[in-house]
Amino acid sequence: MIMDTQQALFQYCLRLGDTNLILGHRLSEMCSRGPMLEEDIALTNLALDHIGQAEVLLQYAGEVEGKGRSEDDLSYLRPVDEFRNWRLVEQPNTDFAYVIARQFMVDVYHCLLYQKLQKSNNEILAGMAGRFLKESIYHQRHSSAWVQRLGLGTAESHRRIQQAFNDLWKHTPEMLAAKPYEKKLIDYGIVPDPEELALDWTVQVIRVITQSGLRRPADSFVETYTAHTEHLGHLLAEMQYLQRSYPGAKW
Amino acid sequence: MDFQEKLHEFQQYIDAEEKIEPKDWMPEDYRTHNIRQISQHAHSEVIGMQPEGKWITRAPTLRAKKILLAKIQDEGGHGLYLYSAAETLGISRDEMIAQLHEGKAKYSSVFNYPTLNWADIGAIGWLVDGAAVTNQLSLRRTSFGPYSRAMLRICNEESFHQRQGYEIMLKMAKGSPEQHEMAQDALNRWWWPALMMFGPHDNQSSRTTKGMLWKIKRASNDELRQRFIDKTVPQAVFLGLKIPDPKLRWNEATGHYDTGEINWEEFNQVIHGDGPCNRERMAHHKNVHAEGAWVREAAAAYAARQE
Fold it and tell me: Which of A47, A72, A157 sits opposite B294 (nearest CB)?
């Protein structure tokens, strides 16, 4: 029984940690590619926050797992099929509108999640969530302001941000879905119920989308059962390159 | 007051170590000299984000990735700060970027060299930021107020970057044989470009005289270069790395290191756009700027509508 809960907690932390890690990595690819210097700096700042969150979550995941794996071991030495991040965050930086749409959808979820998670019975998770929430509130302010600017800016920006939401929308069910292992954690008051989060998320996201003069994307798509898209493998090949090429070296 | 009197008063003010502020009277040459130097400095910070940025996605640990991200973010912040300082002299950021794209404004030639292995990130911090900070420490006393204040802040961060770079070099140089080899390779490739950062010899530099008279520049190219060499050689010895200069030796009489001659032909080639990565760096900056146009337009249109 205790082992099961630990195992579930490990999976849970991995999912949160990996999502932050992969999103942080995607954002870090934007360095020197921002549409203006201020935004370049802002995106780098987001990357830093997400990688910082990943570091803490994966370190804790490693402790919970109890096999002596560090946050770096988990980041750099796992194969693609062991990553638990949301598919949404591995999607490439097709253009600035994709970066913003992706970020906005994550930020809304993170704010809702961390608000509830800071009341967790697990003091460590609660403490982390409290810290992360401060960052995520700031992130959401930034991304929702951009959704609005792009939605109401010019015809081109409107078209691009709508396209980004349309294309990324198919990854949201996977992000919102409850995982079987979460049941026990919910029962013990360790994590919030993802179904409630999903409802709140949908309301908030749709509100900002419509306030920005955009349409809610269509839900009609085939739900795939793969954990990842084609993009993650390439991302990891690059991210893990040094650790894989020089096993055991200290950096 | 006629021009000569104003100029005389201006010079007296500078000689008294007072700072010139944006609204003060200044000769046109002083204004253009500062615009050129500050915008060049800003462009260097921004273009410098590229070679280091190449390794963010391959940083070997989460800690290393965070440090590198924070560092590059600092560089962007310096760029922003310096553009603002230059703007006080009556030029816009758009104009400065246009000058960069037209090749009228320059940036530090050192960023036209490639980053080929992880130790390059260490070498850039240690040598490139080390050279930059040697120069910038003296610029804290520059006569133009906004530039001087920018330097005070920037120097603190740059010396932090230099220590971080040295930490990477230390780990690599004392690490596995492959890592040591990467560290030596990085030093081999970055040593001379770092020395070139100080510019031509004093007797070759056309701009030094006026810059010194107006206290925009506070120490000569050769003085600063020597200061950097004297500080850096013992650090290389500590790392167990070899400086790629067979003529390098300690001179007891002068109390300085003697060195071989910089390859000035290479220096001139890089300055004039024919370095290893000049075209790539400019193409990257131009492409990103062009790709971002629709975002800037959207932000402007939205802001206009809110008014």
Answer: A157
Domains of chain A from N-terminus onward: 5-215+224-245 (1.20.1260.10)
Residue B169 token pair? 């070099």
Preferred mutation among B39, B65, B170, B306 to probe A, highest tally of A CBs within 10 A = B65
Asked if A155 reaches chain B (Cβ–Cβ under 8 Å), the answer is no
ipTM associated with this complex = 0.95
- Which residues of chain A have a CB within 8 Å of the CB of B293? 35
Question: What predicted TM-score, i.e. pTM, was given to this entire model?
Answer: 0.95
Candidates A170, A182, A185, A184; CA nearest to A226 is A170
* pLDDT per residue rounded down to tens, chain B (307 residues): 899 999 999 999 999 999 999 999 999 999 999 999 999 999 999 999 999 999 999 999 999 999 999 999 999 999 999 999 999 999 999 999 999 999 999 999 999 999 999 999 999 999 999 999 999 998 999 999 999 999 998 998 888 899 999 999 999 999 999 999 999 999 999 999 999 999 999 888 766 678 888 898 888 999 999 999 999 999 999 999 999 999 999 999 999 999 999 999 999 999 999 999 999 999 999 999 999 999 999 999 999 998 8
**Cβ-contact A171, A87 below 8 angstroms:** yes
Contact A132, A106 (CB under 8 A): no
> Which of B115, B147, B105, B110 lies closest to B131 in space, CA to CA?
B110
CB of B232 closer than 8 Å to CB of B127: yes
Q: Do A32 and B72 touch (CB under 8 A)?
A: yes
